[in-house]
Amino acid sequence: MNLHGIASAAVGTVNPFVDVAIRVSTGYAIAIGGEQVPSYATPGAITASIAADVLTVSAIASGKLSAGQTIAGAGITTGTKIVAQLTGAAGGVGTYRITPAPQTVASGAVTTAFSAPAQIQSLTYSDLMKMDGLNIQGQRRALYLNGRFDGVVRPALKGGDLVTFPDGTKWLVAMVLEYWPDWCKIAVTLQDDGA
After folding, report:
1. Is the pLDDT of residue 195 over 50?
2. Domain limits at 74?
3. The dihedral of CA 60, 63, 67, 73: what is its sign?
4. How many domains does the structure of the chain reveal?
5. pTM assigned to the model
């Protein structure tokens, strides 16, 4: 049961959801000077068409498709998202259910990105105490999101995921405060001022 989904409707009257863009960490590369440079999954580039509520992907130039990704291209309604995969290899060529529908779009170039609605809040005293041992300075916020997002995952050699707020500021996932089967609460730290 998604308890956050139930409570978020009431909370949303005071603190509405905003769409944030999320770049998932894929690890790092080593620069010429020997320093680690974080790397993130890039937005996908595909060839696809839409009939009613079905996206038919005929080719993938880069990236992997998944539920929750937004798609964009000529004739596609702004904010269109993939809901579920219907046929084909996981994340690859095949068919996907989309929303909103119906739409009719001829085959052409389409890009994908991951965005999700988030509730942005201040960190609680308990959250701050959990983060105290990380010795992280700067502005921090808590985000409630449906899905799973990560901070540092050492065994996988991954850094934290990167979240872009609607104002263009970038925030790094510093710590996952709560993991549940279908939602999470993450602590993010401001990386820049969007300038």
Report:
1. no
2. 44-113
3. negative
4. 2
5. 0.66
